[in-house]
Write a structure and sequence with these properties.
Helix content: 40-55%
Structural class: alpha/beta
Number of helices: 17
Length: about 375
């Protein structure tokens, strides 16, 4: 049975309730959007309502752009959740109508694909909505139910099977089956349903190549040559994967040096378990040749979750030169550069001299298995 974990984003959402804005919660399927929304509704009892928009009768009722019909359907509720709202035709116009007609009602809409819901809601909801993202469990959130020793003991499993709520606490013999089922059956559902996607096979092969290039710079041109499609197609598919919360891009940092590489991104997975499922590798970390890349991915995405929980939005980069000097991860905020090197084995590393000369105001820290909690914890 899934254990109840209070999500770090919950108090952020609660802070924005009943302040005149529709709250839109994005996130991949099965990251816990429904559970979180029902938790938000609990204090309001009979004054709340939850609607699953993937049910045809709900979708039909919400498709009527007529205030009285919407009022009859919603009733006298104070707070309403529209789950998987992107399935409702013209959802942006419907939400705008509800906000303008019933400003006292708090509406929370969720979507598992930001391309669908954002495209349909963006223009009608300009100035009327706030957007949030929910990710799989964070390492920090698990401190609610696991002691520091227990979390450390589970780290190998988290790096192999990821942190999706239904998988993070599953017995190891079940975790692989659940993860493969999630990857094959649910993860790409919204992308494959996207109206202009013509080559589903290309999407699968692209994901396999991205998974194998984890931690390296990605060339759209090289991927296009391997898959025999255009670079524009590769860029479009990666954009869709990003908007479906499968992968995300980390851009290169380039300011002062001619030798800095300033075009090719790194691409990471929002969940390392999904990445492992794509390449079908679940061996213990110490036996794996790709453990350094998995560790890097884990730290980058856990840092992303930490920053969200703290309400921080620094610019995020990696740095590399044509001579091979590199910094794994950089954050830039208020003119300050903070550089990090990620290490699985050796804890010793030096900031590249070229970076230190070009950016003398920056800080530098090595993040390894003995100190990584301070890098990813929401304390």
């Amino acid at each position: 049975m899934q254990k109840l974990v209070k999500r770090d984003i919950q108090p952020i959402l609660e802070r924005w309730l009943f302040r005149g804005k529709t709250l839109i919660l994005y996130g991949a399927r099965q990251v816990g959007k429904t559970t979180l929304c029902k938790t938000l509704l609990m204090p309001y009892g009979d004054d709340s309502a939850y609607f699953n928009c993937e049910i045809q009768s709900v979708r039909s009722a919400l498709s009527v752009k007529e205030p009285q019909a919407l009022q009859r359907f919603i009733g006298d509720k104070k707070i309403v959740v529209l789950d998987e709202a992107q399935t409702v035709p013209e959802i942006g116009l419907i939400l705008k109508l509800m906000i303008d007609t019933f400003p006292e009602i708090q509406i929370i809409a969720t979507g598992s694909s930001s391309f669908d819901l954002a495209n349909r809601a963006a223009e009608p909801l300009t100035g009327r909505a706030l957007q949030f993202e929910l990710y799989p469990f964070s390492y920090s959130e698990l401190a609610q139910i696991l002691s520091p020793v227990e979390r450390r003991a589970h780290l190998d499993l988290f790096l192999r099977y990821g942190l999706y709520p239904n998988i993070a606490f599953a017995p190891e013999q079940d975790a692989q089956f659940l993860l493969d089922n999630l990857s094959n059956s649910y993860l790409f559902k919204d992308i494959l349903m996207f109206e202009n996607l013509k080559r589903a096979d290309i999407l699968v092969y692209l994901l396999q190549l991205l998974a194998l290039q984890l931690g390296n710079q990605v060339s759209y041109h090289e991927l296009a040559n391997q898959l025999k499609v255009s670079s524009a197609t590769i860029e479009r598919y990666i954009d869709l994967l990003e908007k479906a919360f499968v992968v995300f891009r980390l851009p290169p940092f380039s300011r002062n040096l001619r030798s800095e590489i300033g075009k090719k991104n790194k691409i990471y997975f929002f969940d390392v378990g999904i990445r492992n499922s794509i390449v079908q590798q679940y061996q213990p970390m110490e036996l794996r040749a790709d453990k350094g890349a998995i560790w890097e991915n884990f730290l980058v995405v856990e840092r992303l979750k930490y920053l969200q929980a703290q309400g921080l939005r620094p610019n995020r980069y990696f740095w590399r030169t044509t001579e091979g000097a590199e910094v794994d991860y950089i954050e830039e905020s208020a003119g300050q550069l903070n550089a990090y090197e990620f290490k699985w084995q050796d804890k010793k590393a030096k900031l590249p001299a070229a970076f230190a000369r070009a950016y003398p105001e920056g800080t530098f820290k090595v993040v390894h298995r003995d100190n990584f909690e301070g890098f990813v914890e929401n304390s």
